[in-house]
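hey so i finally got around to running both of the ones u sent me last week. sorry it took forever, my laptop kept dying halfway thru and i had to restart like 3 times lol. anyway pasting them below in the order u listed, first the sequence line then the structure token line for each. didnt double check formatting much so if smth looks off just lmk and ill redo it

first one:
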Amino acid sequence: MVAEALTEDAATELAKGFKALGDPARLRLLSLIAARAGGEVCVCELTDAFTLTGPTISHHLRVLREAGLVGCERRGTWVYYWVVPAQLAALSQLLDVSTVAAGAGR
């Protein structure tokens, strides 16, 4: 949990990440990228995991990128994606209740 209340700007930035994760396809895309050995995955491997069209997957990846949750790099024909740990940590910190004092969250 955070030690103090979020500023308006911080809340706006974190909300972008939570909003991006509010879609099942984007949540699954993020989990596929994060679970990948080596830390990155080719978009060609992501599209095979879905029944969605390529343009729809590209849209979802763009939303994740704009929210700062994933980074990418074009290599030849393909684009490779990886998670951005700092952004995920910021979202996680807000949800972490392990630091809440006992009894405070009744």
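and the second one:
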Amino acid sequence: MKLIRTIRLDPSDTFVFERAAEPGEWAVSGAFAFWDADTEKLEGKARSAFRGGFLGVESLGWSTLVQIVEASAADRAALVERLAQQLVASFGAPDLATARAAAQEEVAFAELLCNHPADTLIAVHRGLEDGAVREAFRTLHPRGDKKPMRAFSFLEVEGEEDVGEQVDLVALAETKSAGPS
């Protein structure tokens, strides 16, 4: 089975988000963190987290990218349990049993994103559409076998057209590799 972990290719998450996830944390989409927020009025770092962050389960910090990794059934069970604990402690879930059911759903959704090879990176873009939160995901695959991974060693290969703001990572990579004119 595969799950998603946070990854940090550069230090930008540490100043884009109020709290950046630590690299290597198990992650989920995290859209639920904004269930009671007026997302149209979010500003600054909170807006950045809503628009383009995955939630690191341990730190409850945000990550711009997650990486698909191989996981065991024990990893999945521990992720569900930790997320359930966080839902009770930090998000007001009424009890652990209710939180476990919600955590199971969140982890199952994260698993749906993992139908790509291991080491594929995923980015999210969230926005409001017709009064509902809409998430669009893009995948980035490594070019060749380059390790360690660097921000410009990825090539976007598939994804849904996002709504609103976006950064064209492929164009940035091509500009970077072309060098100064």
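quick thing i noticed on the 2nd:
The CA atoms of residues 13 and 43 lie 16 Å apart.
anyway thats it, ttyl
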